[in-house]
Design brief:
Blueprint (H helix, E strand, L loop, with lengths): L4 H9 L7 E7 L7 E8 L5 E9 L7 H21 L4 H4 L13 E2 L5 E6 L4 E2 L7 H17 L18 H14 L9 H8 L2 H4 L1 H7 L6 E3 L8 E4 L5 E4 L6 E3 L1 H12 L17 H15 L5 H5 L1 H22 L11 H18 L1 H11 L1
Antiparallel strand pairs: 1-2, 2-3, 3-5, 4-5, 6-8, 7-10, 8-9
Helix pairs in contact: 4-9, 4-10, 5-12, 9-10, 9-12, 10-14, 12-13
This protein binds adenosine-5'-diphosphate (ADP), 2-acetamido-2-deoxy-1-O-phosphono-alpha-D-glucopyranose and magnesium ion.
């Protein structure tokens, strides 16, 4: 992809039959990977209808065809379940809008891939929980998502990013980036390097249990940030799980853990002032309660017992990924300022340290709701 998303946008817009006049398309959301736009269409009655148009990052997701097959498969399956239960499938799962050619995505002249979803109206997408109840509701939504997909034929899913949550592999990538030090940034980050190195053995804990056959592979979301849930504005319940690019077989504790990483604190992921970065046990408890209520009956004892490990390792892994990207010159995660990936890494490591200090309490809370 040579061009910016804005440069290709007119070509992409022309690939769909919009049900009216396109009034404009503006950047939307706060994702780190894809380019997201909101498209405003004026329909025959003069009303504005919104759509989500996204350029899939094909540097990250090299097989957009397989990825879209996953999304259509999973959302089709969920649609069946939602309808059976008398729900509204236009709001409770994503709906892909086909191109003029009837395809589920459009390949542009620059090697990019674009897709359109109907906009789920009447919802909120929070960057931070405003109350513990919000966080609880997001846990119920992610827990339900996992339970609903328990019967999905996992073998038909494409692995959209290989070794996505293989923490050992993430550690190895960090070591390679450190050895290469292409930007000469290693000299300023000795404390972070020491932090990671001291936790090398930890990186293998969950991967090891999986390899030994002690933990099962499940159909998981793999990117369970709070901003990947749409909440109903009126009821504030999590109604639609979005960002399904990384739905793949994975560990239940990783879905749980990635939510804790992002949401069990009251700071931004890239907060530069570490004094403001604190792991919150009350939020941890809210999420744990919701997740176990929704998905707990489907989990084994060891899956439940290792939930704190999921929280710690998803946080450590994400910090390692931010640090690796910083060393490599910020080519993976979208950045808006100098040093942003290093700030992101530091918040994650501070949270890991806090979790280590509260390890016994975390285990107690998980036990209470198991
Ligand atoms: P990324 O992979 O870059 O995080 P997402 O798929 O999460 O991209 O989309 C980015 C943002 O766009 C979301 O956080 C949400 O605010 C909004 N969004 C995505 N899909 C929809 C939808 N179908 N309806 C309403 N908002 C959406
Ligand atoms: C990315 O796409 P987005 O912003 O939802 C990343 C996640 C990270 C997250 C950190 C495909 O998620 O793995 O945890 O940033 N997604 C991918 O905020 O790498
Ligand atoms: Mg997202």
């Amino acid at each position: 992809m040579k061009y910016t998303a804005e440069q290709i946008l007119p070509e992409a817009l022309a690939a769909w039959n919009w049900n009216g006049q396109v009034a404009g398309a503006l950047r939307y959301g706060a994702g780190h990977i894809n380019d997201t736009f909101c498209v405003y269409v004026q329909d025959e009655a003069g009303d504005c209808v919104r759509y989500i148009l996204q350029r899939i990052n094909t540097n990250t997701f090299t097989d957009p065809k397989g990825l879209m097959e996953n999304i259509c498969g999973v959302t089709g399956y969920l649609r069946g379940m939602i309808e059976q239960q008398g729900g509204d499938a236009m709001r409770e799962t994503m709906n892909v809008v086909p191109t003029k050619q009837g395809e589920n995505y459009y390949s542009d002249s620059d090697g990019g891939a674009w897709r359109v979803y109907t906009f789920v109206e009447g919802t909120l997408c929070l960057q931070k929980a405003e109350t513990p109840q919000d966080f609880y509701e997001s846990a119920v939504a992610f827990g339900n998502f996992q339970r609903q997909l328990a019967g999905y034929p996992a073998a038909t899913l494409h692995e959209t990013i290989r070794k996505f949550h293989d923490t050992v592999n993430r550690y190895a990538n960090f070591e390679k980036a450190l050895a290469a030090d292409v930007c000469g940034r290693a000299k300023g980050i000795q404390a972070e390097i020491d932090f990671v190195t001291a936790r090398k053995a930890d990186c293998g804990y969950m991967v090891g249990l999986l390899a030994e056959g002690k933990l099962p592979l499940r159909v998981t979301h793999n990117d369970t940030k709070l901003n990947n849930i749409l909440m109903d504005k009126a009821t504030r319940k999590g109604i639609c799980v979005i960002d399904l690019d990384t739905v793949m077989p994975g560990l239940a504790a990783n879905d749980y853990g990635d939510s804790i990483r992002f949401g069990a604190n009251d700071c931004a992921e890239d907060e530069p002032d570490l004094a403001k970065v604190n792991f919150s046990l009350p939020l941890f408890e809210s999420y744990t309660k919701g997740f176990l209520q929704a998905a707990g009956s489907a989990l084994t004892d060891l899956e439940k017992e290792t939930l704190p490990w999921g929280a710690k390792l998803m946080t450590l892994e994400c910090g390692i990924r931010f640090l690796t990207d910083y060393l490599e010159g910020d080519h993976y995660f979208r950045t808006h300022r100098e040093g942003q990936n290093l700030d992101r890494c530091r918040t994650q490591f501070k949270l890991v340290r806090d979790m280590e200090e509260h390890w016994a309490e975390m285990a107690e809370i998980v036990k209470k709701y198991s």
